[in-house]
Design brief:
The structure is a homodimer. The first copy, chain A, is an alpha/beta fold. Chain A is built from 7 helices and 5 strands; from the N terminus they run βαβαββαααααβ. In chain A, helix 1 links the parallel strand 1 and strand 2.
């Protein structure tokens, strides 16, 4: 069975939990506490030298890091990733947008809140907030005439952007002003097999074993 | 003919110039000066609301942003992107690594140097430098037993990482200590159809028309 090295509060890890659940792929969930430095141990660095969750590990020892690459791997050949080359490029455009222009602001603000690091980073809050709202505005404008990010159906682009957008309020972002984003969040929540970021999924095992 | 909205010094735009040249795909090159704010004009924002180059535009008006999504689009069905689902995920893992854990440090340091913004950002230089070296160390360890980032041949993962790595010295990074990275840089330079970041390619047209 595959293993998902996971951190409960991580939206990046939640993306993988969500897709694996929607695909019906069983997995073992291995909690790694990033707040306790567990991604910096020698054992973890052998799985991902870039010390980040999520990482997926196969029984033969192969590992795959980067949440959006993991989503792509499992979505290939399924309805969550279009075959059409143009639509596929659109999916990736939004996934790269998420990692470069969304996550570093919206996810990081939330992280500072729940990890108690907000005061220590006070000087950066204005810029992070401004850039996070910029990402939300772009999403709202794109979604206004559309139901999903790429093509006419729910894809891994939606999963990638949903993960941190739906909890943006935990980083002090006011989602109330983004009507199209809110309609889309609800559309994502109504997909078959949807789980919450707090839902217990997978068989939990300890790390290190 | 397709148009590439381009900025000469941008490694992200160079990625696209390089792949299109290696594929023999003709294009019009539309220079956009990011230092003069030309990515923030209404005309440009209609092409990419995220105000970044590169953007590719088709004659029917369709546009595609995000350098690595553009690479993926054109590489589909060519030798620059493996068909194998596992190798394809490896390619994407390194491309997402590039955008999240490499470009924001190595490219940004270089940008501050050539745009004269280094002094204004002096307080961030130590962290950017440390995180840039961290990315280079991960690359060097990965490449030590390998010739390319994913599988046994040159792919868009190599193009994505080459773009800013080969000019990291312009951001004060010392590449001398990374032997495997240097051997790989030379391997990339020897690929058929390789061009320099400064090479004139495409038919240049003005923006706005």
């Amino acid at each position: 069975m595959i293993r998902l090295y996971d951190f409960w509060e991580s939206g990046n890890a939640y993306k993988v939990r969500l897709l694996l659940t929607q695909l019906g792929i069983p997995f073992e969930r291995v909690p790694v506490d990033i707040l306790k430095g567990e991604t910096h141990t020698d054992e973890f660095l052998r799985k991902n030298p870039n010390h980040r969750v999520p990482v997926v590990e196969w029984p033969d020892g192969r590992t795959l890091a980067e949440s959006n690459a993991i989503l792509f791997y499992f979505a290939q050949g399924t309805k969550y990733l279009p075959e059409d080359p143009w639509l596929r490029a659109q999916v990736l455009q939004w996934m790269f947008f998420e990692q470069y222009s969304h996550e570093p602001f919206i996810a990081v603000m939330r992280f500072w809140h729940f990890s108690g690091q907000l005061e220590a980073n006070r000087q950066f809050v204005a810029e992070k907030t401004e850039r996070g709202y910029h990402a939300l505005k772009i999403m709202d404008a794109h979604l206004s005439p559309r139901s999903y990010f790429a093509g006419d159906s729910y894809s891994i682009a939606d999963i990638a952007l949903y993960a941190y957008t739906h909890v943006a309020g935990e980083g002090s972002f006011d989602l109330g002003r983004f009507g199209a984003v809110n309609a889309w969040l609800n559309r994502v929540r109504r997909q078959d097999g949807h789980i919450l970021i707090t839902d217990s999924v997978g068989t939990e095992i300890n790390f290190p074993e």
